[in-house]
Backbone:
């Protein structure tokens, strides 16, 4: 910097550092330079890299070529934002499997190392870097802790002095198999993305919490009918399902792989009165009124909502059933929904949410007539409504807050922002 810059109090900023020569050892002070994004240590006489290199957590480029390295620290795998790692012309015979965790790595330089024939064969294939990273991640021994137990959210302490209906609800995006790819979840081993492995973990979790109502999103059509429904029926549930709107345009074979929403309920506590499907693209078409945005942005998204009008049974009551048998038969409207995923379409998500709320209001009004035939005006508040779903939105967004403006509504959005975890 110039003297004027120094006098003005400006601070120097150098995100790149090059150390080249005949260096044999590195100063521990180097690992304190955590602002570095690029580090050039090539063309030296380094025989080892200390584990502390992982402290440089902002590195995206690391060049260790043309040294005398015979091994690498496993901690290199913790530098997950690395995009280029050059290890050419060293004495490396093996690579730590932890390198497979570098899911953002685009360029891995390994030429000029006496690596095993198996590693070199994978590396020399088209897209060899990604294939090698996948191979190493799949062979990495994972010793990760179990996810923390989910905590129940108790909405109200029941009055134990009288009969009161008590039930539990679980909302879960099961991640459709076709979306569980290494391109999206590069930090997960292939075995953790495999549906046969994941579905066991999902079902174990559902059974562990044993909720009375289950709201599921991204359920593949074939998996609903051939896995979830028969498995949960054995546990005392029944359920409804609807795939996304695109399924209507497909043949029978393709339709099996379309995902949708499902609602399951414990048959000892609830009975199904009526199923309602909410198709956002159809509502957008009916309410476009010539709006190009409604037609071009909203109508083209085939997300859905699914609602079940249920009726309670005596088994749902604690402290005995009500004295009047008719009082035990109370209606409740359960809804699950899955909004559009793209952050660039926040307006679409909000419109989908508003359309869903409008449809739920209409369903509640129509249903209030059947449960209270003598009433002159429909009473929306007479039917409690439970809205669950995956809004693909942040907690402070309009689509997450808009439903809260409805007094009769209880919202369950446990996954406003998601990350895939795996366990063994």
Residues:
């Amino acid at each position: 910097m110039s003297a004027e810059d120094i006098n003005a109090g400006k601070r120097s900023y150098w995100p790149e550092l090059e150390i080249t020569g005949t260096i044999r050892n590195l100063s521990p002070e180097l690992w304190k330079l955590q602002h570095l994004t690029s580090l050039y240590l090539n063309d030296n006489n380094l025989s080892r890299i200390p584990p502390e290199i992982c402290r440089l957590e902002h590195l995206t480029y690391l060049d260790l070529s043309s040294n005398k390295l015979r091994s690498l620290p496993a901690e290199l795998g913790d530098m997950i934002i690395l995009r280029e790692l050059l290890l050419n012309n060293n004495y490396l015979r093996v690579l730590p499997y932890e390198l497979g965790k570098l899911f953002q790595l685009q360029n891995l330089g390994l030429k000029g190392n006496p690596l095993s024939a198996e590693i070199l064969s994978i590396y020399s294939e088209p897209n060899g870097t990604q294939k090698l990273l996948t191979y190493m991640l799949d062979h990495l021994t994972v010793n990760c802790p179990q996810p923390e137990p989910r905590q129940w959210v108790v909405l109200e302490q029941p009055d134990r002095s009288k009969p009161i209906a008590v039930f539990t609800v679980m909302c879960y995006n099961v991640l459709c198999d076709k979306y569980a790819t290494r391109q999206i979840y590069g930090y997960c081993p292939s075995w953790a993305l495999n549906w046969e492995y994941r579905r066991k973990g999902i079902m174990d979790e559902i059974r562990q919490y044993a909720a009375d109502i289950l709201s599921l999103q991204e359920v593949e059509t074939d998996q609903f009918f051939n896995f979830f429904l028969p498995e949960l029926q054995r546990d005392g549930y029944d359920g409804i399902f609807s795939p996304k709107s695109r399924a209507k345009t497909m043949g029978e074979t393709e339709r099996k792989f379309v995902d949708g929403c499902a609602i399951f309920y414990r048959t000892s506590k609830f009975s199904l009165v009526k199923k309602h499907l909410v198709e956002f693209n159809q509502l957008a078409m009916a309410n476009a009124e010539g709006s190009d945005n409604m037609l071009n942005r909203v109508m083209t998204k085939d997300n859905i909502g699914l609602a079940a009008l249920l009726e309670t049974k005596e088994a749902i009551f604690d402290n005995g059933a009500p004295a009047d048998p008719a009082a035990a038969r109370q209606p409740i409207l359960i809804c699950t929904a899955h909004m559009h995923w793209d952050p660039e379409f926040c307006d679409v998500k909000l419109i989908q949410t508003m359309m869903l709320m409008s449809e739920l209001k209409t369903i509640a009004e129509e249903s209030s007539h059947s449960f209270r035939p003598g009433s002159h005006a429909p009473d929306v508040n007479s039917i409690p409504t439970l809205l669950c779903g995956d809004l693909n939105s942040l907690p402070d967004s309009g689509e997450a807050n808009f439903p809260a403006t409805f007094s009769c509504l209880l919202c369950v959005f446990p996954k406003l922002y998601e990350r895939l975890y795996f366990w063994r």
